[in-house]
Amino acid sequence: MAITTSQLQKICTDLVEVLKNQLPDNDPDLVELIGQQYFMGTLSRMISLSKILDEQGSSSPELSRQDLRFNLTYPEDADLAEIEAIRQHAAVLLGKCLDALKNDLFN
Questions:
Q1: Burial class of residue 4, CB neighbours in 10 A (0-12, 13-18, 19+)
Q2: What pLDDT score was predicted for residue 2?
Q3: Residue segments in the chain with a per-residue pLDDT below the cut of 70
Q4: What is the rounded distance in angstroms from the CA atom of residue 31 to the CA atom of residue 23?
Q5: Strands (DSSP E) found in the chain
Q6: Crossing angle for the helix pair 80-106 and 28-56, nearest 10 degrees?
Q7: H-type helices in 23-79, by residue range?
Q8: What pLDDT, on the 0 to 100 scale, is given for residue 65?
Q9: Is 68 helix (H, G, I), strand (E, B) or coil?
Q10: What is the pTM (predicted TM-score) of this model?
């Protein structure tokens, strides 16, 4: 069953809300901007890679040919350290969600 764009957007919106609750001392607009880009970009690439794996069967995809990196956009006057901290928190949150999903699937 394929995930729809609206479902992906709902997941990202929910993750951003959790991230905003975890980072109450940060600018909520900046957390939302960075979080939405990070979650959407990462999950979109994971879905694309999953489709490639399905199409290729058990063979490994050529990761060097995949566009797995993306840049975040942010206001010119934003604090780069704050942006990096938000991105790192987003990565940890997404990792925890994926671990929980993996544990539910395999236990």
A1: exposed
A2: 72
A3: 1, 57-69
A4: 8
A5: none
A6: 40
A7: 28-56
A8: 59
A9: coil
A10: 0.83
